[in-house]
Amino acid sequence: MEELKLYTYIAVFGTFALYFAIAWWARAGSTSDFYVAGGGITPLQNGMAIGADWMSAASFISMAGMIAFMGYGGSVFLMGWTGGYVLLAMLLAPYMRKHGKFTVPEFIFDRYYSKTARIVAVVCLIIASLTYIIGQMKGVGVAFSRFLEVDYGLGLGIGMFVVWVYAVLGGMKGITYTQIAQYVVMIFAYTIPAVFISLQLTGNPIPQLGLGSTLADGSGVYLLDKLDMVVTDLGFKEYTTANLGGGLNMFAYTMSLMIGTAGLPHVIMRFFTVPSVQAARQSAGYALVFIGLLYTVAPAVGAMARLNLMNTIEPTAGQNLEYAERPQWFKDWEQTGLLKYEDKNGDGKIQYTADKATNEMIKVDRDIMVLANPAIANLPNWVIALVAAGGLAAALSTAAGLLLAISSSISHDLMKGVLTPDLSEKNELLAGRVVMTIAILISGYLGLNPPGFAAGTVALAFGLAASSIFPALMMGIFSKKMSGKAAVTGMIAGIGVTMLYVFQHKGIMFIPGTSFLGDMGKDWFFGISPNAFGSVGALVNFAVAFAMLKVTGPAPAHIQEMVENMRVPGTVSAAHDH
Amino acid sequence: MEENKEAYWQENLRLIFICLAIWFVVSFGLGLLLVEPLNEFRLGGYKLGFWFAQQGSIYSFLGLIFWYGAKMNKLDKKYHAES
């Protein structure tokens, strides 16, 4: 067996064995263990687990590639997916922890004293989480098929089995401890190649500083200036100023991702696992430390990978690479179909330009930028093996968190809360495990037969979280008068506007040909893309809810009192200075 | 008792307002709205506006969360409100 494959098997199955061992050690014995890990996770542990939970296959595999091709425009993802933690730390997490329940729909039910509200929340949660899981399952399949040359379906099956063992056995407790291990695997797998590449290109081992340094080739030119020059020479937009659909679109997009992040139930749930309000605030800080570590390295990975790619194809201006002399990684990725070359002018060389008529790199999938990065930079085989294990850790840890969110919303909110309130704790725990098994099977099926609309669904997940869940939770805490009926009307209006906008431009349920307005910039409302519309939906939600509040009158006195208690960590007594 | 709860909440709201103002300025302000004029300045090889959008905003978010947490811990002590 070749060396690379051997290392990859060791890295992948070694980490799987570790996850199993942790799951056995941390298996759940009660519903409290299963839903909130017994409430005994420390802020540091929780921060790491949130990091793994949050950073999905998309963050690990795709984000740096998106930045590589979007340049400055990719900033919306960097700011959007980190800025949400500021909102979580100040507007939601501490108060929801104080209230002390197991799930997000349960919080909404208590606050809005309405089963309708709870069911709306469950439906949003399931749609948002399921669409998210499809991406993770695809990530698992791709990682297996590319790195171990295992059939895509078999790879997916192995991934499903691994998640099933530790998520079903351990519940939140098992998931939390495996996520901590997965975070460590993931961050090493991400930063080690970045450190090597930064050293090669700039002589600075810290990628965040390397990105702002001069090149190590003795030219004294800054890396970013060189990149700007190389891409504009070939007709691409300047890297450091390339815009993403105009200023208003970037603004709305960033805002949607921020409030969407703060409203995603599988992230909020993690704040219920710590012992106190103070620990909840602290967890958000630690979470952003661990997330920020990857997110501040990602722009360096993106820019450096783009420069390396350009330099490989055109080592000096006008001297293009002969196709016959292309490196091994080029051949490997051609086989997967993620990289495609067509010799349009018949000169046997590779021309890569922004002009569609003469460009011969007819496909460069953005995912390659992370997956092939170590090979493009000629890094040792063990680094490539580590990237495989890291990609799998990213996908599996996020999938587990999402599965728990789905299973708890069904066993705890739908069954125990609405349909069969006399369910015993033992049976609720069993139901949680059965539901999770079913959810794994459904998501595995969807990963194997990804529906045609899978690509558009991330917009839907963030749109739903931003336009329905975030405003409902925030008003529940900051407006003690907000009534149940007004909040439910607001949620439905927010979802309605967002879904209508996404569907009218992307097709009803994303079915091609059913979009009744075109999917082009000129058709968009003030140039805001469907992916960025969640923030507009949230505004509609707030406006409708406050207007309806005038009609319904304020929430009953006992609810207002509950909100007042939520706002303070313990029992408050007269202020005095120490 | 009730007045104390209200006083605690008002102090918290004031802190949140300050933090979110900074949150808005470092990301939407310096990283998006004012990016062009800021790009005239440089931080090493980074154009300054670009740096805020891809690095500086994230470091600021981090500082904000920890600063808010520390201030709130003090507030909890002042009102004997530790949980």
Written description of the protein model:
The complex is a heterodimer of chains A (578) and B (83). Chain A has 22 helices and two strands. Chain A has 578 residues and is mostly helical. Chain A has two domains: 3-308 and 377-450, Sodium/glucose cotransporter; 452-567, no CATH class. Chain A has a two-stranded antiparallel ribbon. In chain A, helix 7 (115-147) packs across helix 18 and helix 19 (457-478) runs antiparallel to helix 20. The longest helix of chain A is centred in the N-terminal third of the chain and has 51 residues, at 152-202. Chain A starts with a helix and ends in a 12-residue tail after the last helix. The mean pLDDT of chain A is 86. Chain B has one domain. A two-stranded antiparallel sheet of chain B has the order 1-2. In chain B, a hairpin with a 2-residue loop joins strand 1 and strand 2. In chain B, helix 1 (2-33) packs antiparallel against helix 3.
Task: Characterize this entry briefly.
The complex is a heterodimer of chains A (578) and B (83). Chain A has helices at residues 3-25, 31-36, 43-54, 57-70, 75-99, 104-112, 115-147, 152-202, 207-210, 223-233, 247-263, 265-268, 277-313, 328-336, 368-371, 373-376, 381-419, 425-448, 457-478, 484-506, 534-552, 557-566; strands at 339-341, 361-364.
Task: Provide the helix percentage of chain B.
Answer: over 70%
Low-confidence stretches of chain B: none
Quaternary assembly: heterodimer
Structural class based on helices, strands and sheet pairing of chain A: mainly alpha
Architecture blueprint of SSEs:
The complex is a heterodimer of chains A (578) and B (83).
Chain A: H1 3-25, H2 31-36, H3 43-54, H4 57-70, H5 75-99, H6 104-112, H7 115-147, H8 152-202, H9 207-210, H10 223-233, H11 247-263, H12 265-268, H13 277-313, H14 328-336, E1 339-341, E2 361-364, H15 368-371, H16 373-376, H17 381-419, H18 425-448, H19 457-478, H20 484-506, H21 534-552, H22 557-566
Antiparallel strand pairs in A: 1-2
Chain B: H1 2-33, H2 35-38, E1 42-43, E2 46-47, H3 48-78
Antiparallel strand pairs in B: 1-2
Helix pairs in contact in B: 1-3
